[in-house]
Design brief:
This protein has four helices and ten strands, in the order ααβββββαββββαβ. The protein has one domain: Protein Transport Mog1p, Chain A (3-Layer(aba) Sandwich). The two termini are about 25 Å apart. It has a seven-stranded antiparallel β-sheet with strand order 3-4-5-9-8-7-6, with helices on both faces. The chain has a three-stranded antiparallel β-sheet with strand order 1-2-10. Helix 2 runs parallel beside helix 3. It is α+β, with helices and mostly antiparallel strands.
Length: about 200
């Protein structure tokens, strides 16, 4: 819970990553969501050397509160916290794996609706906010879709030189998901096994 509570205890740290039109309730919640995800990834420590396993033998896990199911190489730690920031009230839900390599699937439900014209800006800000607050270097970010949902995807590098992929997408106008994992098979495993639950 500590990494989630930190996002509402340190709102000033969010302000530098809010840009232009994102300085409103929805944008503030997206930045806080990204900050909490980044804090949780950092809190589990650096990757450990280990034999990678195929996603085919990963363990399935369903998280009704987080509105998703996925498969992970080990049992994730679950974190859930209601928050409020910038006039919005929202719940952040995370499933994070520390070993052998850091992975995260997260969701956020907000009590306000983001206009359709703003959805692309929200996911772009989420990726940028994660990079700005995580200690990872964002080498590139591009607009994409994930199962027809508007999304942004970024490539990040940690201080040890390991490469990760971060995907942020709007499932609907008041729910955002993030998927974060080492680039390649592990990221592909998380995204291919991900299922959103209404």
């Amino acid at each position: 819970m500590r990494c989630l509570r930190a996002c509402v205890r340190r709102p000033r740290q969010l302000l530098p990553v809010l840009r232009g039109g994102h300085q409103h309730a929805a944008g503030s919640s997206s930045a806080c969501f990204s900050w909490a995800c980044a804090a949780c990834v950092e809190s589990v420590g650096a990757d450990r050397a280990a034999v990678r396993t195929s996603a085919a033998v990963w363990t399935g896990a369903t998280y009704p509160a987080g509105h998703f199911t996925d498969r992970f190489p080990s049992t994730p730690t679950e974190l859930q916290e209601p928050c409020s920031f910038g006039g919005a009230h929202f719940t952040i839900y995370l499933a994070v794996v520390a070993a052998p390599r850091r992975m995260l699937v997260a969701s956020q439900d907000v009590d306000i609706h983001v206009p359709d014209a703003q959805l692309g800006a929200e996911v772009r800000a989420a990726v940028g906010s994660f990079a700005a607050s995580s200690g990872f270097t964002l080498s590139e970010q591009h607009v994409t879709t994930f199962r027809d949902y508007q999304a942004n995807q970024g490539t990040l590098t940690d201080p040890q030189g390991n490469t990760y992929t971060l995907l942020a997408f709007m499932y609907r106008d008041n729910r955002m998901y993030m998927i974060f994992a080492p680039s390649g098979d592990e990221f592909d495993g998380l995204t291919s096994n991900f299922v959103a639950i209404k």
